[in-house]
């Protein structure tokens, strides 16, 4: 007793000592308190607890699926108290010291706290059944509460059963030592409603220990609790009541059970505390208020089992004596284990040896007879015997044969001949760990339980073994089987498959879409947005919006070409023609709801083609057709319209075929189609078509794929401006498996990202220089992981942190590359299941995080940093500075522009377009077409100076250029022509022309020379219809020319040439139309009839003249003469690796090179080929023009009536009530604007 002199201290201080406490009767123990022996150096620092009702078949106290080790004392006077997570219900308690004082011996003073316990116990012999009759013949029950405790050594048997004549039933039974609950609240006679529901819980329930069961049902919701582990589920079908007739039985099937219910065994064992909807059944049995006539001998006590198990660990063995010099060997035993291999028994013969073991789940017998030159006999039987169930083995060897029987199946007995008669040695080893005694066995030690050990057909008295009267043992636990099913409950998440050995379990995650030790971490990104910022292109991807949450991954199409990625789910969801009234229902997936909830905007195409089938009737009438959206709400607006407006698109835009109606189909004409863009109503899950009863009625409904833009969760961010600032989230659910992920960027070297300050757990993620630190508590142990980055983390760029802890391991990962792993401690995980407070930043006086954090997700749930930041001082919603991490995606000189929730690329000073400045801007020039860009005196110098920071070409402040860069691409099959001509207010000019033979010529005239300086590229025909790129850069006298992907050629202006390009005036593309003096060679040889073909990517320093001409919204001094058709011209040049000059067959200095397309020696084949190319080009041009005309006409008619719906100025400026409704709804306005911007171009 505590605080008293003395205490318990055994004579021997070793691991075989124990202290047993007899409580006098069964008690409910809830806590234990320990103290060292009084005034000594004796105490116990670690211990375990065993408990039993009978001093036999002891059970260890379990927690977290492990045999629990309690932390004891560190001195003799301190008091340590442990509250038991689950109360112990037993009469006898054993205290097992595991570790003790190094200065002294084992010592303890202890007290147990709890309360008295009493319950009526009933023994079931497999014949008796308790039949509890209802007060009325039929019971229609909406709520049930059933509880009982049971104890058995049988692995099969019915615990309770009730049924009704309408097919309802409830049944609880043991199957292979697992508990199965089956409920059916009703199925219809046609089979369209199947109500059968079955749930399995627990395992190894035939261990002869008490197990408690509670079943709680309200309508279709059921809580099924076995030994404190609760499963929640809903029954199948649509019915809520359990209809039972006459009675419910306990211990087996009633006599009135239907024949189909037969074939199941009755329960053998004990039950206590049976209650059914408030009635104490065991008490009614004792008072003889319940029918027990089927019992042969009704007893209110639980008989002890005859079996006495033995528990072996990896260092255990049991040595027992038997008959020696006998010609008969007979050994039998029962075992249970999870390990596929292990030695069960070994015995030495007078000449040889025999061993029985497990090999890959089979029982194998090896007999080695040394008299016959080491004759070896192998036999095996059974399979999959490492399933944790009890299995029996019987080996009999006599005269000249041996027989092996597994699980008493005589039909599968294996028999083999023995060449000589054996003689037993008289000593038998069980368990396998006796290498210091015998080294002949190659089998590994057995880990598991054995019972019913027979040697020479005599049952071994294990009590005598324990008292030392017979045999010896080492590290064996007698009267106990400490087998644990580590796969129940299954810690493998997301349908991962669990397998186990004696010490641990593992998860097979293949085919689940998840990875990690417990299949917790998703293999996929949360959205198209995340794939886009990993540099992925458009395509089909698997996404997992909630990460490790319950929503399974699914495949979508991602379009990465816009400013925000477009997600498309499904190609064509549904299309069908109806001739009768019908309702179409689509499967509404939880995956789709997760996408629409986080998207910036969504849309879905709907179309109704009709013949004598009206759609919406009138705005005030009852609609003939409606659709149901995500919240199961009915909607009577159609594509192109909005909520609350019972009109179609043509009714909003005032362009219906019949102006008296607001839908074309309401006038029995044509079709009504459009986009549904109110994302809170999407997706369409049901369409009801009503007006199909008239003669000749026909309707075709088309539901298109759901399309969504962006991912708000990915950009959900907050900025921490003070080291003392933090965001507080009051309800954070800690679980056995917890994963945390977020992005951060900072210029600070230290700071706490987040921490959990719960009273029962600790979690902390911190930045320390170039190290990310992740620490947390598991039980009484603190685990710490760290990952070091090779680059500074305070570089103001985005970095990603991913941390996970589960029952198997802890993982910390930085930027998807740098990773640390550490096995988790075996104890303490269930303590993580609680609600506590989470702080993003530091709240405990430490230095908090300074910088930006976004996309914080814990266990699949996104934390709304922006909303919390709006009401928190020191923290601002959103984050600036995305360009430092993602600015490299803006290509071709595009400028990255910061936005509130991301970034965009400004392509205005480039020759490109698109979200990343990668889309070619080009045009097709007809004969005589030209583009002219004029530099105004007050604008020209400024525009040219801008290139200083964009293209890297230095331009002086005056208008006279000493360096310039001209870049463009072209494709043509006609010659000669002017590609680019840049004029000046003097006679200086730069011209790039194609000569008659298709070769390129660059002409520079900067003054000081009689004739212009020319660069002739005579070795390449550029008029071959293929795209080519040209890059000309000049710096003073040095000119660098690169064509396509070939090496750069360098040229030098003569010393007499001027180096200034004076007063640049105009840029001409395709043809020159200029007043004043012009080089006559340009006009006479190349200006007529003009360039015919495609030009694209045209940029002179910071000026993009062709882009300015094709983008009418740009206010620039550009003019176009003739027909210029927008086209990208296929302008990407052939991706040919650069060649060395010596190996380039087209290079002018290549030995023996002959130019095949000399204009003076063109072959006939070349003429035919050019003619074919020209014809093909003309055909393509005609086809392109026709397509553009169709597009333009359709565009004009479509937008003719849609002007008012694009206005967002309020109801006072709307031209009708319908438009006012759309304008005044912010969500609707936003989605319409976004959709038109993205998809109506």
From TrEMBL:
The record places domain F5/8 type C at 1-115
**Single Gene Ontology BP annotation:** cell adhesion
Which Pfam families does this UniProt record tie to the protein?
A: F5_F8_type_C (PF00754), Laminin_G_2 (PF02210)
Record keyword Repeat present = yes
Coarse class of the protein's main subcellular location: other
Q: Where are the transmembrane segments?
A: 1172-1193
Does Nucleotide-binding count among this protein's keywords?
no
Q: How does it sit in the membrane?
A: Single-pass type I membrane protein
Q: Where in the cell is it found?
A: Cell junction, Paranodal septate junction; Membrane
Q: Where is the Fibrinogen C-terminal domain?
A: 519-584
Ranges for the EGF-like domain?
A: 483-520, 880-918
Keywords for the protein's UniProt record, in alphabetical order: Cell adhesion, Cell junction, Disulfide bond, EGF-like domain, Membrane, Phosphoprotein, Repeat, Signal, Transmembrane, Transmembrane helix
Q: List the disulfide bonds.
A: 852-879
Q: Which InterPro entries match?
A: ConA-like_dom_sf (IPR013320), EGF (IPR000742), FA58C (IPR000421), Fibrinogen-like_C (IPR036056), Fibrinogen_a/b/g_C_dom (IPR002181), Galactose-bd-like_sf (IPR008979), Laminin_G (IPR001791), Neurexin-like (IPR003585)
Tell me the first and last residues of the signal peptide: none
| UniProt domain Laminin G: residue ranges | 121-302, 307-481, 716-879, 940-1129
A Gene Ontology CC term for this entry?
paranodal junction
What PANTHER family does UniProt report for this protein, alphabetically? CONTACTIN-ASSOCIATED PROTEIN-LIKE 2 (PTHR15036:SF33), PIKACHURIN-LIKE PROTEIN (PTHR15036)
Family to which the UniProt record says this protein belongs: Belongs to the neurexin family.
- Per its record, how is this protein called by name? Contactin associated protein 2b
Name the source organism. Lates calcarifer (Barramundi)
Instruction: Identify the taxonomic lineage of the organism of origin.
Output: Eukaryota, Metazoa, Chordata, Craniata, Vertebrata
């Amino acid at each position: 007793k505590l605080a008293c002199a003395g205490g318990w201290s055994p004579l021997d201080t070793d691991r075989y000592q124990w202290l047993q406490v007899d409580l006098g009767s069964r008690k409910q123990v809830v806590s234990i308190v320990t103290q060292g022996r009084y005034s000594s150096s004796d105490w116990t620092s670690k211990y375990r607890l065993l408990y039993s009702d009978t001093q036999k078949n002891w059970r260890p106290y379990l927690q977290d699926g492990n045999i629990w080790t309690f932390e004891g004392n560190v001195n003799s006077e301190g008091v340590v108290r442990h509250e038991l997570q689950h109360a112990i219900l037993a009469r006898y308690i054993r205290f097992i010291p595991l570790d003790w004082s190094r200065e002294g011996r084992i010592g303890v003073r202890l007290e147990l706290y709890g309360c008295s316990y009493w319950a009526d116990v009933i023994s079931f012999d497999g014949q008796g059944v308790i039949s509890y009759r209802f007060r009325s013949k039929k019971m229609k029950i909406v709520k049930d509460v059933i509880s009982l405790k049971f104890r058995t050594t049988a692995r099969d048997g019915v615990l309770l059963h009730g049924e009704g004549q309408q097919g309802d039933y409830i049944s609880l039974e043991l199957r292979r030592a697992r508990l199965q609950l089956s409920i059916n609240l009703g199925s219809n006679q046609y089979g369209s409603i199947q109500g059968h529901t079955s749930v399995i819980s627990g395992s190894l329930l035939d261990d002869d220990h008490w197990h408690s069961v509670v079943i709680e049902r309200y309508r279709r919701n059921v809580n099924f609790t076995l030994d404190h582990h609760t499963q929640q589920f809903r029954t199948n079908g649509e019915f809520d009541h359990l209809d039972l007739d006459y009675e419910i039985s306990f211990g087996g099937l009633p006599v009135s059970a239907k024949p189909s219910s037969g074939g199941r065994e009755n329960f053998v064992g004990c039950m206590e505390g049976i209650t059914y909807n408030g009635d104490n059944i065991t008490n009614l049995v004792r008072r003889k208020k319940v029918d027990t006539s089927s019992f042969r001998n009704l007893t209110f006590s639980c008989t002890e089992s005859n079996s006495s198990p033995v528990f072996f660990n990896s260092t255990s063995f049991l040595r027992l004596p038997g008959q020696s010099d006998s010609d008969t060997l007979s050994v039998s035993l029962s075992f249970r284990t999870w390990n596929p291999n292990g030695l069960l028994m070994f015995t030495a013969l007078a000449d040889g040896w025999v061993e029985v073991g497990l090999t890959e789940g089979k029982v194998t017998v090896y007999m080695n007879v040394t008299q016959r030159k080491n004759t070896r006999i192998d036999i095996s039987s059974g399979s999959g015997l490492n399933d944790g169930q009890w299995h029996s083995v019987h080996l009999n060897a006599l005269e000249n044969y041996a027989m092996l029987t597994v699980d008493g199946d005589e039909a599968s007995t294996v028999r083999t001949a023995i060449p000589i008669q054996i003689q037993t040695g008289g000593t038998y080893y069980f368990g396998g760990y006796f290498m210091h005694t015998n080294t002949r066995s190659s089998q590994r030690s057995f880990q598991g339980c054995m019972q019913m050990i027979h040697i020479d057909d005599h049952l071994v008295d294990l009590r005598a073994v324990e008292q030392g009267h017979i045999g010896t043992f080492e590290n064996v636990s007698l009267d106990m089987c400490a087998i644990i099913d580590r796969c129940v409950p299954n810690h493998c998440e997301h349908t991962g498959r669990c397998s186990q050995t004696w010490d641990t379990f593992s998860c097979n995650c293949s085919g689940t879409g998840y990875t990690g030790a417990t299949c917790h971490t998703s293999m996929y990104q949360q959205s198209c947005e995340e794939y886009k910022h990993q540099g992925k292109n458009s395509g089909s991807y698997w996404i997992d919006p909630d990460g490790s949450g319950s929503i399974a991954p699914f495949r979508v199409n991602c379009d990465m070409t816009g400013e925000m990625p477009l997600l498309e789910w499904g190609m064509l969801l549904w299309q069908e023609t109806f001739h009768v009234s019908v309702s179409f229902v689509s499967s509404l997936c939880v995956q789709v709801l997760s996408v629409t909830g986080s998207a910036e905007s969504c849309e879905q195409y709907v179309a109704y083609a009709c013949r004598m089938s009206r759609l919406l009737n009138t705005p005030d009438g009852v609609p003939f057709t409606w659709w149901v959206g995500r919240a199961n709400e009915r909607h009577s607006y159609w594509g192109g319209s909005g909520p609350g407006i019972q009109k179609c698109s043509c009714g909003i835009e005032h362009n219906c075929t019949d102006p008296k109606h607001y839908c074309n189909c309401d006038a029995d004409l044509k079709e009504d189609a459009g986009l549904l863009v109110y994302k809170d109503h999407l997706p369409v899950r049901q369409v009801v078509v009503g007006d199909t009863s008239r003669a000749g009625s026909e309707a075709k409904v088309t539901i298109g794929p759901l399309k969504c833009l962006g991912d708000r969760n990915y950009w959900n961010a907050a900025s921490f401006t003070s080291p003392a600032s933090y965001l507080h989230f009051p309800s954070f659910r800690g679980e056995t498996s917890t994963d945390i992920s977020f992005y951060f960027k900072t210029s600070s070297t230290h700071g706490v990202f987040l921490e959990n300050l719960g009273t029962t757990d600790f979690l902390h993620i911190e930045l320390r220089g170039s190290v990310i630190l992740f620490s947390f508590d598991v039980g009484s142990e603190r685990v710490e992981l760290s990952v070091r980055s090779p680059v500074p983390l305070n570089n103001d760029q985005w970095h990603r942190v991913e941390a996970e802890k589960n029952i198997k391991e802890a993982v910390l990962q930085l930027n998807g590359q740098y990773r640390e792993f550490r096995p988790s401690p075996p104890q303490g995980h269930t303590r993580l299941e609680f609600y506590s407070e989470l702080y993003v930043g530091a709240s405990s006086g430490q230095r908090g995080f300074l910088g930006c954090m976004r996309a914080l997700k814990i266990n699949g749930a996104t934390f709304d940093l922006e909303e919390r930041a709006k009401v928190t001082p020191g923290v601002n919603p959103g984050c600036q500075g995305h360009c430092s991490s993602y600015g490299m995606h803006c290509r071709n000189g595009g400028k990255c522009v910061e936005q509130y929730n991301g970034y965009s690329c400004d392509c205005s000073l480039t020759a490109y377009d698109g979200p990343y400045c990668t889309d070619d801007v080009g045009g097709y020039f007809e004969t005589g077409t030209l583009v002219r860009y004029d530099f105004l005196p007050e604008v020209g110098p400024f525009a040219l100076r801008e290139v200083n920071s964009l293209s890297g070409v230095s331009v002086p402040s005056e208008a006279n250029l000493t360096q310039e860069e001209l870049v463009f691409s072209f494709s043509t099959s006609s010659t000669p022509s002017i590609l680019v001509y840049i004029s000046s207010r003097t006679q200086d000019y730069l011209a790039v022309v194609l000569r008659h033979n298709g070769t390129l010529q660059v002409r520079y005239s900067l003054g000081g020379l009689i004739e212009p300086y020319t660069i002739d590229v005579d070795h390449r025909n550029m008029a071959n219809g293929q795209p080519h790129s040209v890059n000309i850069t000049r710096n003073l006298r040095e000119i660098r020319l690169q064509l396509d992907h070939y090496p750069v050629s360098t040229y030098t202006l003569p010393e007499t040439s001027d180096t200034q390009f004076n007063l640049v005036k105009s840029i001409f593309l395709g043809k020159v139309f200029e007043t004043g003096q012009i080089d006559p060679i340009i006009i006479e040889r190349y200006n007529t009839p003009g360039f015919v073909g495609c030009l694209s990517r045209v940029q002179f320093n910071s000026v993009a003249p062709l882009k300015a001409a094709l983008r009418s919204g740009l206010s620039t001094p550009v003019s176009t003469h003739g027909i210029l058709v927008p086209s990208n011209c296929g302008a990407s040049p052939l991706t040919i690796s650069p060649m060395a000059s010596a190996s380039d067959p087209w290079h002018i200095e290549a030995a023996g090179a002959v130019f095949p397309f000399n204009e003076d020696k063109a072959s006939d084949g070349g003429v035919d080929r050019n003619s074919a190319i020209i014809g093909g080009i003309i055909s393509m041009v005609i086809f392109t023009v026709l397509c553009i005309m169709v597009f333009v006409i359709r565009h004009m008619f479509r937008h003719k009536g849609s002007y008012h719906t694009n206005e967002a100025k309020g109801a006072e400026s709307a031209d009708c009530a319908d438009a006012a409704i759309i304008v005044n709804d912010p969500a609707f306005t936003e989605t319409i604007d976004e959709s038109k911007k993205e998809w109506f171009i």
